[in-house]
Design brief:
There is one protein chain. The chain has about 400 residues and is α+β, with helices and mostly antiparallel strands. Among the domains are: about 5-140, no CATH class; about 265-390, Heat Shock Protein 90 (2-Layer Sandwich). It contains twelve helices and five strands. It has helices at about 5-15, 15-30, 45-55, 65-85, 90-105, 105-130, 140-215, 220-250, 270-275, 295-315, 350-365, 385-390, and strands spanning about 280-285, 320-325, 330-340, 365-370, 375-385. The chain has a five-stranded mixed beta sheet. A hairpin with a 4-residue loop joins strand 4 (about 365-370) and strand 5 (about 375-385). Helix 5 (about 90-105) packs antiparallel against helix 6 (about 105-130) and helix 6 packs antiparallel against helix 7.
Length: about 400
């Protein structure tokens, strides 16, 4: 024996078949079961039975054409009542049609449909009994049609609520997916930038010193051994720094080891010494009062200098010049190096190093320019705001 849940599932999966079966089920009810309110109850016969069957058949289209079905069932019910000479169970058919109409339309259209149903069926009952004064049975359908309209509007409101909840859930899910994708992209960019910053200049040192060793291995073995020692030290530094990055990536949150602070301008001397140890000639000067820059710009300053000196080491042909000027509200950094006959324009951001620098500087509200100077030198200039100085 199928339960209510089975009927509901069949109703949802096969609505057209369900409506057709409902129409077929109502046909014997309205034809053979008379209205108990009549003085002499009897089943329908003749033309009234035919019209009743056709009226029930209209319910098979109640979802696809609810308005037309409501009109057809009200007219059909009125015809059956007039042909049969009194109230009939055919009134249940426009009841079902009015419910379907209310589910498909708003409250104003439902109110019009309710009024039309009551007037149509009530007038037919009045004409079939005593036109004036109307028989009380002419008004007996008002409450039943009101229930049909109310239930239909309730179902419509509930379905609209469910749809709104589902749409809200879908939007929330899409938003979460988009946010997750954005964070993944940002994290990838951050990892790529960090790997480039901490490893690229070491790899450049390895490449330069390996080339030096290759040229000096026969003519000047001691110098070649010195270059190889620089390669070994740079390789060890690469492994150490890569291990630190990987340790951070293995963590489940953004916490970092408090005993290994992020590098800043306080490590400038160590940075310059590492390049000089690799054979690079650097002339640098500092003006103003050296300090850590607030707002995350201290790390940006260090990374910019690291990348600029790495580029100078790889592409430069002479002594690089580095200047740092501490102003009350900002810090200005400039790195220049001769590039000889190399006219390749690095300012357009075609390398990942310059792209990373621009992004880091922009992230803290700074400004950066990278260009070839008129004297054949490549210049990188950066202006970073100092939040502490701005609010002092």
């Amino acid at each position: 024996m199928p339960g209510l849940s089975d009927v509901r599932a069949f109703h949802d999966d096969h609505p057209v078949v369900f409506d057709a079966l409902l129409a077929l089920a109502l046909m014997p009810v309205v034809v053979f079961i008379p209205d108990s309110a009549r003085a002499e109850p009897s089943s329908l016969s003749g033309a009234a039975a035919v019209v009743a069957v056709l009226t029930c058949a209209a319910l098979a289209w109640r979802r696809r054409h609810p308005g037309a079905v409501l009109v057809a069932t009200v007219v059909g019910a009125a015809a059956v009542i007039l042909l049969d000479g009194g109230p009939s169970t055919i009134s249940f058919v426009p009841f079902v049609a009015l419910y379907s109409f209310a589910v498909a339309h708003g409250w104003l259209s439902t109110l019009v449909g309710f009024a039309a149903s009551v007037v149509g069926v009530g007038t037919a009952v009045a004409l079939a009994t005593t036109p004036w004064p109307p028989d009380s049975r002419a008004f007996q359908h008002v409450s039943s049609f009101a229930v049909a309209a109310a239930v239909g509007m309730t179902v419509r409101a509930r379905r609209a609520y469910v749809v709104a909840i589902e749409e809200r859930a879908e939007r929330a899910e899409r938003t979460r997916e988009q946010e997750a994708a954005r964070r993944v992209a940002e994290e990838r960019l951050r990892i790529a930038r960090e790997l480039h910053d901490v490893i690229a200049h070491r790899v450049a040192i390895v490449n330069v010193q390996a080339s030096v060793a290759r040229h000096l291995v026969l003519s000047d073995p001691p110098a070649a051994l010195t270059a190889i020692e620089h390669v070994r030290e740079a390789g060890k530094a690469i492994l150490d720094e890569l291990g630190e990055v990987l340790n951070v990536l293995r963590q489940h949150d953004d916490e970092v080891d408090p005993h290994t602070p992020a590098p800043g301008l306080d490590q400038l001397e160590h940075l310059v010494a590492s390049f000089r140890a690799a054979g690079m000639s650097i002339r640098h000067s500092v003006s103003g009062s050296p300090r850590a820059i607030a707002g995350g710009a201290d790390l940006v300053a260090y990374r910019v200098l690291q990348e600029a000196l790495t580029n100078a080491h790889k592409h430069g042909t002479g002594t690089a010049t580095m200047t740092i000027c501490y102003e009350p509200t900002h810090v200005e950094i400039e790195v220049t190096n001769p590039v000889g006959d190399d006219e390749t324009d690095h300012s357009g951001g075609t390398g990942f190093g310059l792209i990373g620098m621009r992004e880091r500087v922009a992230a803290v509200g700074g400004q950066m320019a990278a260009r070839h100077g008129a004297d054949g030198r490549f210049e990188v200039s950066v202006r970073l705001p100092d939040r502490a100085g701005v609010h002092a």
